[in-house]
Every structure is written in C-alpha cells, then in structure tokens.
Amino acid sequence: MSFSSVNYEPFGIASPAELQSKLAEYEYLADETLSTTIFLSLALARPLFLEGEAGVGKTEVAKALSRWLGTELIRLQCYEGIDVSQALYEWDYSKQLLHLRAAESGSVDGIHSKINIEELESELYGERFLLKRPILAALSSTGGMPPVLLIDELDRADDEFEAFLLEVLSEYSVTIPEIGQIRAKIPPIVVITSNRTRDVHDALKRRCLYCWVEHPTFEREVEIVNLRAPEVGLILARQVAGLVERLRTMGLFKPPGVAETIDWAQSLAILGAKELNERLVEETLGSVLKYKEDSDRVRASSLSELVRSAVQRAR
Prior knowledge:
3 domains; 15 helices; two-stranded antiparallel ribbon; elongated; Rossmann fold
C-alpha cells in the first residue's frame, strides 16, 4: 500500500456528511468543517492536527474514531520533558539481565552450552527485549484495521520532541540504531491535539491536515448533552447550555468545556433539578468551574441575572 495514494471512500465512507452521521452513532457530534477535515485525513492517510481551547472535544475525536472502526486506541500523553524513550521504545533491562545470567550458567532457552559473546550481544538487542511505547506500538500493528494513535497535547512537549515526530509523520517509520528502520505496514490513523499554550512548528503542521476546533454552538451543545446525558431532560439541558455559553464570554481563566457542561447538567439532574435557579447554580458551580478565581468572578456578578438570561436563551 502506498501512503501517498488516495482512497476516495476511506473505510467505506463516501462523503464528509456520511462520516458525520457515523460519528454521531458513536456519540460524537462534529460540525461540517471538522467532519470534512477528518474525512480528508482518512482519505489521504495524513495525520489530523486539532487545535483549540481545552475542553472543546479534540481528544474525543480519536476516541470516536476508535469506537467506530473497532480498533485499538493508542494514546501518547505529552508533557514537559517527554523524550523518545517514553514515546517510542525502551530496552527491557531486567529481561536482558536475566538472559545474561542464564547465559553465564549455560542454560539459555534450556540449552546447556557455551554462548558466543557476539551472538549473545545481538540477542540482547533483538525485538524480544524491546518494550514498545505508543508510537512504536502503533507503527508495529499487524491487524487488518489500523490503530488510532492519539498524540495528546503536543504543545506541552518541547522542540526536540517535535523534531523526532517529523520522521514518524512523514514516512510512518522510525529508526532504531540496533535494529534498523521499522516502517508501518498499515499506517495508523494519527490524531494530534494542541491547546495552543505555545505554537507548534510549521514543519510539523505541514505534514498534517489542520482544523481549529471551536466551542460548539448553543444548539449543538444542547444536542451533545441530550446525547451523552439523556436523563437530564430538554429544558434543563437548554438552560445549562445557555448559561455555559454566557460563562464563556466572561473572560474566565478556564472557560468551561463540553465535558464540564455535561458534568454540570448531570449533577443538576442527580439533585432532582428540572430547571435552573440561583441556589442550584451557587451550590453546583464546582461542577463547571475549576478555578477559585473563576468561581469568585461569577459569584461576584449577578447570579439571578445569569440564570434569567439562560432561561430566556433556552426558550
């Protein structure tokens, strides 16, 4: 299979609209722009780079693709200081040591004989002693359906790690000095996310299809709450979505994402709420706001006015 070839019906999906419907079956509601970008990334076998504020649903794209395709989701969570060994591979030193001790006693694999030193060294750096980390595991997949490789929050990693990813994203291959080049027989579906705490280099972005993921519209967020938490009820779901929409305009340190909207709606439903009121909002702010400064700012404003505007928005 040529990685540059185009499959105009990736995984049997003929259009972005069909993909949008398929993802909805697996509880992910994508808008037209996002569904088109996902469709093209699958057709072109190109990595998908999703950028946007935390909580807009970027990571959920990879999860939904994995559920739809019935394939493994391999997740690499990036963080400051992550290096190649944590992303690609490590040698299983304890297993190598046991092998050496067995060789010294002349009982490797149950064979009592003197082992040639060069042969022993070559054995120690073979695939049987290789611990495959997420990227190598994705490239080494031999199943019929490619795995989904999620490289999450790449903006937390440093420039050196980005440079390492260039070979992976260009050729779907990596080079291990002791073994040589390992190239994927089937390219994984790669989803990269960034919260844009820093800019990711152009060289990496050029290898990807890009989409900026916005917070959902009011109506879309209501749909998401109804899909993920049907017990909430339509009236409460609309009021919660309306209030969250308002909170995102208040210049908070961490505006609530979709996950917080769902959590808040579910929390209110557990408390038996059918509609919002000032007391319930006051008591459950911890379900939607995760910083004291944000909670203080909201409480300092008029909660009654916020609730009133949410109720009006929901009509």
